[in-house]
Design brief:
Blueprint lengths: L1 H36 L1 H21 L4 H21 L7 H5 L2 H7 L4 H28 L9 H25 L7 H27 L5 H31 L1
Length: 242
């Protein structure tokens, strides 16, 4: 009898795992497909990044020496601001059509749904910005030593930015005009990522080892992956129930 119960429990666990993965992939696929259909939401951050970087030499100085000194910090600040453009709509459509409330009330794990939505945001916003940044570094006369560190730091940093930003998006999802409040909530949390991300590129340009800043960015990313979905899920429940 105990063997039968053990088999039933094992089958139940396997079915639950399959159901969780199916729900995860369904949400991820839906959001990525929606982003490609509504290309403006995906292209706007990249266009913003391009426009601001293009205007920087006009507003600061066209001299390569001045631009190369400022390039690490400028690229990181602009990438951070570009990420903010799409955060307000992360949970907005699901909240407005009622599907978010249904997911919260359903037996499906909200934790995995949150991870899927944040991953889709990073794939359609953070990842394109990461690959565009080194190309735009040419416009700011970024030295050759800074390109790979810029790419690596943004790969780690944009994941953290999406996860932390999603907390603010979850807290303000029920507000009609929550964009400004969203920025006020998450900007202080973005500061450490910005400091170590820009420092990584700056140290590489100056010839120093970048293992320390990259390790700290990796630690930020790991902590955010573990803890941020819990905070996002709790914030979504608070916003829907409010």
């Amino acid at each position: 009898m105990s063997a039968v119960n053990t088999n039933l429990d094992q089958q139940s666990i396997e079915q639950t795992e399959i159901s969780l993965m199916q729900g995860f992939w369904a949400v991820l696929k839906r959001d990525v497909v929606t982003a490609f259909r509504q290309r403006s939401d995906m292209i706007n951050p990249v266009v913003f990044f391009l426009m601001v970087v293009t205007m920087m030499p006009l507003g600061i100085s066209p001299e390569a020496k001045s631009l190369s000194f400022l390039a690490p910090g400028l690229l990181w600040v602009i990438a951070l601001l570009a990420t903010l453009l799409s955060l307000d709509s992360l949970f907005r459509s699901d909240y407005e059509d009622g599907s978010l409330e249904q997911v919260i009330l359903s037996p499906q794990s909200l934790y995995f749904m949150v991870i899927a939505k944040v991953l889709s945001h990073w794939l359609t916003t953070g990842l394109p910005l990461t690959f565009v940044a080194p190309l735009l570094g040419v416009l700011l006369a970024l030295p050759a030593e800074g390109y790979l560190p810029l790419l690596g730091s943004l790969l780690l940093g944009t994941v953290t930015l999406s996860l932390v930003g999603a907390i603010g998006a979850a807290l303000t999802v029920s507000l009609r005009k929550g964009g400004l409040l969203l920025s006020l909530i998450i900007m202080p949390l973005y500061v450490p990522v910005l400091i170590f991300g820009a420092s990584c590129v700056r140290m590489a340009v100056e010839g120093f080892a970048i293992g320390g800043p990259l390790a700290i960015l990796g630690a930020f990313c790991a902590v955010a992956i573990v803890l941020a979905p819990l905070a996002i899920a709790g914030a979504l429940r608070m916003s829907v129930e409010a």
